[in-house]
Amino acid sequence: MSPDWDFDKEEGTQIRSLIHDLVVTESPSGDASGIHRVMERLLEDLLPIPDIHVDWHQVAGFSLLEVSRGSGGALLLGHADTVWPQGTLKTMPWYEDQDGKIFGPGILDMKAGLAIAVFALRGVAPTTPFRLLVTPDEEIGSALSRETIEKYAKESPLALILESGMPKGGLKIARAGVGDFTASVTGIESHAGLDPEKGASAIREMAQQVMWLETLEHRLLGTTINPGVVSGGTRSNVVAGNAIIGIDVRVQTAGEMHRIENTLAHPPTFDSRTQVHYEGGFNRPPMESTPASHEWFRWAQKAWSDHTTWPLEGLRVGGASDGNFTARLTPTLDGLGAVGVGPHARHEQIDWQYIAPRVGLVRDLVERAGGPL
Ligand SMILES: [Zn+2]
Questions:
Q1: Interior angle at CA 256, CA 230 and CA 251, nearest 5
Q2: What residues contact residue 325 under an 8 Å CB cut-off, 6+ apart?
Q3: From the CA of 335, how far away is ligand 1's center (Å)?
Q4: pLDDT of the residue at 9
Q5: pLDDT at 95 over 70
Q6: Please, are residues 331 and 293 in contact by the beta-carbon 8 Å criterion?
Q7: Residue-wise pLDDT tens digits, 289-311
Q8: Cα–Cα–Cα angle for 150, 367, 47, nearest 5°?
């Protein structure tokens, strides 16, 4: 690795202890005080940066931390919440192995990413503008943060999302839009033995709806539909009067998102005596790659290969992040956080060797976005 992307000894120790403190401060979504404590710890290491402006936003009892300097700079976006409940540390403690892997709840998604942002900003030139926004609710859909995220995305030339990177440091250049739908099917109950013909089976209709949903998929465009949960009926000797399907939809383009929304608004019924109703929608639109975001990606790719021995890939992924909100408003690069494996899994871990180059990459992107280099 080139020396200007490497830590001096002190810096390495400081960022490691920041990551440690963030991980041992548990902050599940919904835990306002744990989340606030994570933000306070971040702020401690941000305060040495000259000329910053600190703003605490409060939304429905939750904090959003905004730290900025000047205007017109890059927007760095991270979340302080994790999927891990309080007490997880007892069975999944902070642990470092001999190979430079560090384990702990939320370390990859995305506490190490937050630390990367902090140390990148400590390294940018003192005149470079930027805005860092740390939100409390990404893991549960960002309902409290979306408005603020979109407002600042519009004012920024570039959005940098500190979600975890791909193997060898690859970035996420496109993300699926994720839809969550429920189909309710109403039929007519009757005795299965005495007068089955008087009944209209909601379960039979549900089965046909499942087959129909499959025909709406478009593998070439990356549209997938998963009826992942079904339930219905009361007893085996009763023709079922109701049934429910829980459906996960992933799309790669806004066009596909609208096609699915419109189609599910007017579903066919295969048995005209039943009623079928789809509810739900897309909580995040797809994050599409644009010519402008691609240009930024190419720039990052070159910087990464100039400074490290790894190639930088740009990948499309199925999961969503707050990058799905910013990508429609400004060029967005996602997956700039730590590199590791097992987000949301018990073996969640980061690979220490990528921390310094990530700090270097984010720092250089912030400087590039904030003015001529
Ligand atoms: Zn995340």
A1: 60
A2: 142, 146, 149, 150, 153, 284, 285
A3: 9
A4: 84
A5: yes
A6: yes
A7: 999 999 999 999 999 999 999 99
A8: 75
How many A from CA of 138 to the centre of ligand 1? 7
**Structural contact between residues 47 and 108, judged by C-beta atoms closer than 8 angstroms:** no
Distance 184 CA to ligand 1 centre (A): 32
N-term to C-term CA, the chain: 21
pLDDT tens digits, residue range 322-351?
999 999 999 999 999 999 999 999 999 999
Locate 212 and state its tokens: 């129909």
Nearest residue to 118 (alpha-carbon basis) of 22, 24, 32: 22
Task: For the chain, give every domain's residue range.
Answer: 3-176+287-370, 177-284
C-alpha pair distances (Å), 248 with each of 26, 70, 85, 245: 29, 42, 24, 10
The answer, yes or no, to whether residue 1 has pLDDT greater than 80, is no
The answer to whether 297 and 314 have CB atoms below 8 angstroms apart is: yes
CA of 344 to the centre of ligand 1 (A): 9
Q: How far apart are CA 94 and CA 83, in angstroms?
A: 16
For 19-44, the pLDDT digits (tens) are 999 999 999 999 999 999 999 999 99
Asked if the model's pLDDT at residue 373 lies above 70, the reply is: no
pLDDT at 346: 93
Per-residue model confidence as pLDDT tens digits over 209-246: 999 999 999 999 999 999 999 999 999 999 999 999 99
Distance 206 CA to ligand 1 centre (A): 34
SS3 125: coil
Measured distance CA(309)–CA(168) in Å, rounded: 10
Q: Does the structure show a pLDDT above 60 at 287? A: yes
Against a cut of 0.85, is the pTM above it? Answer: yes
Q: Looking at domain 177-284, does it have CATH number 3.40.190.80? A: no
Identity of the amino acid at 46: L
Fold exhibited by the domain 3-176+287-370: Aminopeptidase (3.40.630)
Instruction: Compute the distance from residue 176 Cα to the ligand 1 centre, in Å.
Output: 15
Ligand 1 centre from 84 Cα, in Å? 12
C-alpha 64 to ligand 1 mean position (Å): 15
Residues sharing a CB contact under 8 Å with residue 174, sequence separation 6 or more, in sequence order: 252, 286, 287, 288, 289, 316, 317
